[in-house]
Amino acid sequence: MTGKLYARYADARAKKSPLLKDCIKAWGIGGGICALGEGMRRVFLSFGADADTAGLCVSLVLIVLTAFLTGLGVFDKIAKHAGGGTLVPITGFANAVSSAALDSKSEGFVTGVGAKIFTVAGPVILYGTAAGVIYGLILCLIGAVS
Questions:
Q1: Could you write out the DSSP letters of every residue in 56-108?
Q2: pTM for the structure as a whole
Q3: Buried (b) or exposed (e) across 48-79, using 16+ Cβ within 10 A?
């Protein structure tokens, strides 16, 4: 079977995605997560936290809540309906990290969870840190030239 023939075969049998419906669900659920975060931020602010501390607390609560819901298998059901709506907020990253750890728990806590939890987080941390250093150097060089 040639590549073109296979492509026609696959296209004929592939289920068409309801793009508008999927976009609305992603927007609604992603927006709902963001609205939940904003509500939590206002609660932290009302308890006397400054804006930076309130934002940090919201991030931590969303990460812990997502990891907990991922462990229970609930977050994956939400993500199935939300699509990219759960990826944009910090919850997508927390789900990816905790899912990698959960998939490896049968290998033990050290060689399974401990080693595999960083399969997603490691590259993000590495490249995020490297990008921060590179951008900082560029800004320093621009400032030195000016």
A1: HHHHHHHHHHHHHHHHHTHHHHHHHHHGGGGTSSTHHHHHHHHHHHHHTGGG-
A2: 0.65
A3: ebeeeebbebbbebbbebbbebbeeeebeebb
Q: Which one, of 144, 146, 101, 143, lies nearest residue 122 by Cα?
A: 101
pLDDT tens string for the chain (146 positions)? 778 888 888 878 877 778 889 889 989 998 999 999 999 999 999 999 999 999 989 988 998 898 889 888 898 888 888 888 887 667 877 777 777 666 666 666 556 666 666 666 666 666 677 777 788 788 888 876 66
């936290």: which residue's tokens? 49
Dihedral (C-alpha) 127, 91, 79, 128: value to the nearest 10 degrees? -10
d(CA 126, CA 57): 24
Q: Where in the chain are the domains?
A: 18-145
Work out the burial of residue 14: count CB atoms within 10 Å of its CB; fewer than 13 is exposed, 13-18 middle, 19 or more buried: exposed
Please tell me the distance from the alpha carbon of residue 67 to that of residue 142, in angstroms, as a whole number.
41
